Amino acid sequence: MINWLKSLSYKTFAHGIHPDEHKEETRHIGIQRLPFAPELILPLAQHFGKPSKAIVHVGQEVVRGEPLAEADGFLSVPLHAPASGVIKGIELKPSARGPKTEAIVLKVYTGEAQRILYGMPRDIETLTQEELLQAIQDSGMVGLGGAGFPSHAKLKIPAGHEVDTLIVNGCECEPYLTTDDRLMREHPEQLLQGIRIAMKASGAKRAIVGIEDNKMEAIKSLQAHYADIDDIKVEPVQTKYPQGSEKLLIKVLLGREVPSGGFPFQIGAVVQNVATLAELGQLLPQTQGLIERLITITGPGIKKPGNYIVPLGTPLRFILEQIGVADDSGYMIFGGPMMGSTVSFLDVPVLKQVSGLLVLNQGAAQDSSEKIYPCIKCARCVDACPVLLNPSMLGQLAAKRYYETMAKQYHLMDCFECGCCSYVCPSNIPLVQYFRIAKSINREKAAK
Ligand code: SF4
Ligand code: SF4
After folding, report:
1. Which residues, in sequence order, are CB contacts of 331 under 8 Å at separation 6+?
2. Is there a single domain that holds both residue 167 and residue 235?
3. Are residues 25 and 39 both part of a single domain?
4. pLDDT in tens, 337-373
5. What is the pLDDT of residues 38-93, one digit of tens each?
6. Statement to judge: residues 58 and 89 lie in one domain
7. Is the CB of 373 under 6 A from ligand 2?
8. I need a labelling partner for 88 at 20 to 30 A (CA). Which of 18, 33, 203, 252 fits?
9. Do both 106 and 137 map to the same domain?
């Protein structure tokens, strides 16, 4: 009762939902490391923006950490070798969603010690703001919370704007996922280094780390580590989905509202998630690139759930062989159950923006394919939507394919696909899927 009352004293946003958290399965288990797969698949498009351009050729030997592909313009990042080995091919490979995409295939020298042989120590304190932004792009870093947006592009504040606050997103509101929780507890110094880098790169004068109050160990750990630092504050917020949405978190922590269709820098803020900053804090002082990431591997279909460091490009099939799957395992999701994407093939690799692998059992898979019933106008979706849209009306317009009306009169583009409306709908209407389709059709029309 006391904890519940205390939670109410922390800030939060209006509406939202409280799905089962399922974090207990992994949050108490320390970070582990998976071995190297014999072959890694490295798509050139694993970030928002232009795909990177391969700079290696078939048959070339590479060392762990060496660049394999370079950035193609500002909104692009390079790609680095997650292991020492030889380039086996540059070819079309299946992606998680189905269509094939160009990828570098690396045959790993599995007998090697696999030390990182590329990069050297440097004093990042001496770098100018521009040099720091270039160093972030050179590291191949993208938002590891799932968005995959190049980090240097987000931290470069456009001319004529200034940001005063870096919001460090430690909410991790998706059910099942616990990587940020573990990173905050196990690597507070690395995170601190990343926060300093992001503050300097963006020009922010202070940082606020927002953490949901279901991660009290992480909150206490960071509050203790950063106790003597005046410009970094650790602030608990109420546990509620989707608290980790950047616009909602800014509103909760700063009381400022990002304009519809706008960006956080327009109201003086920039947001980075914990995993991204912790990686930057480790990589930049060593002049290294992103070659692996921490992911939560969990769900009722997994035998050894936990948080594992996985080399980028590791095929899903290899992961499942290492971790073990239950006999009744059902379908798989990259990311969390609310905003993640279903995986259709076992030969797809872990990419930079994959924060989790969730394997459900057949019972859960059946639940998700329940029959769809007509809307009963109960308004539960309206009460759940955190950006105050009318999902019921949007759903009816989507069924009639009135996509333009959805955008022009009912603010479809403000929907950030959190899935709260689908989650609460008693008629099992897949509202968020309708909205994704409507948005992509509108985008295609606009591009034409
Ligand atoms: S998916 Fe879109 S419409 Fe549905 S609750 Fe989330 S923001 Fe609102
Ligand atoms: S929750 Fe479902 S049934 Fe209820 S109003 Fe929304 S769309 Fe209709």
Report:
1. 342, 343, 359, 360, 365, 368
2. yes
3. no
4. 999 988 978 899 999 999 999 998 877 655 656 799 9
5. 999 999 999 889 999 999 999 999 999 999 999 999 999 999 999 999 999 999 99
6. yes
7. no
8. 33
9. no
Amino acid in the structure at residue 187: H
Atom number, ligand 1, closest to the C-alpha of residue 418 = 6
Q: What is the pLDDT of residues 142-170, one digit of tens each?
A: 999 877 899 999 999 999 999 999 999 99
216 & 316 share domain: no
**Cβ of 6 below 6 Å from ligand 2:** no
Q: For residue 103, give both structure tokens.
A: 């990828």
Residues 256, 152: one domain?
yes
Q: Does residue 427 have its Cβ closer than 6 Å to ligand 2?
A: yes
Query: Whole-angstrom Cα distance, residue 382 to residue 384?
Result: 5
Tell me the CA–centroid distance for residue 228 and ligand 1, in Å: 40
State whether residue 105 is helix, strand or coil.
strand
Name the domain boundary from 339, 365, 391.
365
Token pair 């972030």 is found at 136
- pTM value is 0.93
Distance 421 CA to ligand 1 centre (A): 6
Tell me how crowded residue 404 is: count the other CB atoms within 10 A of its CB: 14
Mutate to test the pocket of ligand 1, among 173, 174, 388, 420 (most ligand atoms within 8 A of CB): 420
- Do 298 and 150 lie in a common domain? no
Ligand 1 mean position, distance from CA 34 (Å): 36
For residue 26 the two structure tokens come to 């992994």
Residue ranges making up the domain that contains 257: 2-29+124-286
Q: What CA–CA distance (Å, rounded) separates 218 from 238? A: 14
